[in-house]
Design goal:
Strand order of the largest sheet: 2-3-1-4-5
Strand content: 5-15%
Distance between the termini: 10 Å
Shape: globular
Order of helices and strands: EHEHHEHHEHHEH
Bound molecules: thymidine-5'-diphosphate
Radius of gyration: 16 Å
CATH topology: Rossmann fold
Length: 203
């Protein structure tokens, strides 16, 4: 049997990654893989409690980063690694690239500090593949405007999301081997065609 893979979905709020993630996981299952779908912040009881705090309470940018990585450690040790060891594929809605994009890019936090946290929490462990759903901020904003309620991040200004988007693209430059860029401004059908190609390329 092929080695189970750890795949992450990333992008600014409103990119549509959550919808595509469900379809992607289902397609993997149809080709015979056992798949666990999870998310960050969250994915464990501790992580989901931290998510509630992170999405609703105002805090210092570095507190935000520490809590994101605390939730992540729990997620990796309790959920992600045990699943991979059992041959189960893991598809996560966000992972550490989101911390570099949102806390690093959006909030302007020192990237060296984020790298220290990354090294502490998951040295030598990275996703096998990261799908970056990229689109102009105005398009994402239009999609978000259809939501009835917006969380603390979704309420941020366009300038914040512009910085998040650029930080994601920088992250891709730094890790070209694991990133695949998806043009999320396309129609859902066109995005699916791109995702099908990605799935075909997986061993
Ligand atoms: P999101 O995937 O957007 O949840 P939903 O689709 O249910 O709204 O994730 C929640 C928010 O958390 C998102 O705005 C980005 C933010 N976030 C960070 O700022 N840093 C991180 O490390 C992670 C994982 C998420």
């Amino acid at each position: 049997m092929n080695k189970a893979k750890f795949i992450t979905f990333e992008g600014i709020d409103g990119a549509g990654k959550s919808t595509h993630l469900t379809w992607f996981a289902e397609t993997l299952r149809k080709r015979g893989n056992e798949v666990l779908v999870t998310r960050e912040p969250g994915g464990t009881p501790v992580g989901e409690n931290l998510r509630d705090i992170l999405l609703n309470q105002t805090m210092h940018a570095e507190t935000e980063a520490l809590l994101m990585f605390a939730a992540r450690l729990e997620h990796i040790e309790q959920v992600i690694k045990p699943a991979l060891q059992r041959g189960i594929w893991v598809v996560s809605d966000r992972f550490s690239d989101a911390s570099f994009a949102y806390q690093g890019g959006g909030r302007g936090m020192n990237v060296a500090k984020l790298e220290q946290l990354e090294c502490w929490v998951h040295e030598n462990f990275q996703p096998d593949l990261t799908l970056l759903f990229d689109l102009p901020v105005e398009v994402a904003r239009q999609r978000l405007s259809k939501n009835i309620t917006l969380d603390r991040f979704e309420q941020e200004k366009d300038s914040f999301f512009e910085k998040v988007r650029q930080a994601y693209l920088e992250r891709r430059k730094k890790h070209p081997d694991r990133f695949v860029l998806i043009n999320a401004a396309q129609s859902p059908e066109q995005v699916k065609v791109n995702l099908e190609k990605v799935i075909l390329s997986l061993s």
